[in-house]
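Researcher: Going back to the complex we discussed earlier. I've cleaned up the inputs and rechecked each line, so this should be the final set. Can you rerun the prediction on the complete assembly and write out the structure?
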Amino acid sequence: MSATTAMEVNAEARRILAVSISKLYASRTQRGGLRLHRSLLLSMVMRSARDIYHSSRECEGPSDAQPTQEEPMDTSSSLEEQTGLPEPVQPEPQPTLNSTELPPEEPDSAEEDSDSEITEDKENLSPTRQSRKRRGKVSAAPDFLPSKRARLEPGEERYAAPLGSCRAGAGESLAALSLNRVIPAF
Amino acid sequence: MAGAGGGGNSDVQWCFSQVKGAIDDDVAEADIISTVEFNHSGELLATGDKGGRVVIFQQEPESKSQPQCRGEYNVYSTFQSHEPEFDYLKSLEIEEKINKIRWLPQKNAAQFLLSTNDKTIKLWKISERDKRPEGYNLKEEDGRYRDFNTVTTLRVPVFRPMDLMVEASPRRVFANAHTYHINSISVNSDCETYLSADDLRINLWNLEITDRSFNIVDIKPANMEELTEVITAAEFHPNQCNTFVYSSSKGTIRLCDMRASALCDKHAKMFEEPEDPNNRSFFSEIISSISDVKFSHSGRYMMTRDYLSVKIWDLNMESRPVETYQVHEYLRSKLCSLYENDCIFDKFECCWNGNDSVVMTGSYNNFFRMFDRGYRQDVTLEASRENSKPRSVLKPRKVSTGGKRKKDEISVDSLDFNKKILHTAWHPLDNIIAVATTNNLYIFQEKLN
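Model: Rerun complete. Updated structure for the full complex:
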């Protein structure tokens, strides 16, 4: 796969991830509360975009540094991991990407997870500690993720939220999103 | 399009009949129509809106002077069904938007309907009052009590006619049974029970009992992080009181038999079409989510609507639908933009005509589509104020998909995605349809000679 198409795929996946995250943000302030169905669909799209982003980066340069801390990592065993290809990408990259994505999802993600866990114990990092990033060639944060902390509503106060409980009042619906525990923007 | 009377007639032409709602383009959010439903006789047409109001229209009896025109629908009753509420425990506002209205079959002079928002279902009684008692002995006509000393004779109060008054009163409130957002209600053919479905659970109610409901389907996983699908719609079978179906966000439909067990987690049948690998795309999951499921009047078939198509299923065949109709296939290449502008999440409904020969669903640009199952014909029509001269025949519309755009065709890029028709309803007996644009209700009738 050529570097340009990999970059295009990468850029498209990043764009879709950025759009999805802003949609998730917006849905938090929607009247009527978080909609479970919509949140589920958003998280599916985000998962696919993230997987494509990963695999396109691997295709780009396997010698590159490990995925950075801010990359959402799904350590929960989600039973279905449907990966697809981003819409506007030409059919060209398909054969290569297919071979990396289609093999059984469980072993792949488990492998990926364990690899990452060995090198970076992301799960046990508190949100504040994640700011200690590796500097270097690979930028610490993919630039599509907001580097600022969450926007406050008027009158809201910022307080230290324990990891894994950063949703106020959203009840069970947000728990459905396995990505939310590590997305720093939350 | 075959007529509702049975025989095949593919030459049905549709005429504009009426349009209800504000004319100006600035749409007040509360006026956005969220549900449309004819009652079982077709005489009444109910709409619900985002502001929690229900408006019921009644068809005027056919006038002898204009036999070619079926009666017009005029406002019969308007009432505030649901108010915004606040869930203090979860710090969440509960929207007053009416998600669904379902009529009960008529048993006596009064009409009953169920209306629901995200959390609470209400049973409303709509009754007419056209007489009032007059001639009380102890009270004046205005209600003041008379001085006993002035009463020298006795009379029997009599009923005298008065101007028709239509009253809507809430007879039952079914609350606190749903953690997630209610998406469907369906009255059982036994006329005693009904179901309500939210994202993860379906409850069975008795129409008389409000403090208790039975949970009959629960797909909530023990660990919410393993959630992969939600319930999107549910409906009782039209004549088998033990059977209901529910659709999912994964594009499957499960048919359940309540005789099998109290908790219908195991389906009796599962309807699923294998995915076409050629159509696999990034957004495949979203567009396969079913937004509506409707049994045919006969009960032999059911119809499902997903983002791009309408599918007809034979209840006897689970492996694939018997018919598939593409609603707006030209949008398949635009899914990314539709994701960005949120249109890909739109939930279109669908409906059958009276004799199950034609199905209808909405699209964008205020277009709606009809598919004649017998003649294998389809037509695209538009609901707009420009075609709103009384009894003007609707001209079929066409979206140009290829390079060359013919005259009168509209290109995909010129479609207005803010003008969407999500809710449509077909009169149960006649060729009269109600089509809801954002805040207007259009009524079209078959052209009669």
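Model: Worth noting: The first strand of chain B starts at residue 14 and ends at 20.
Researcher: Good, that matches what I expected from the previous run.
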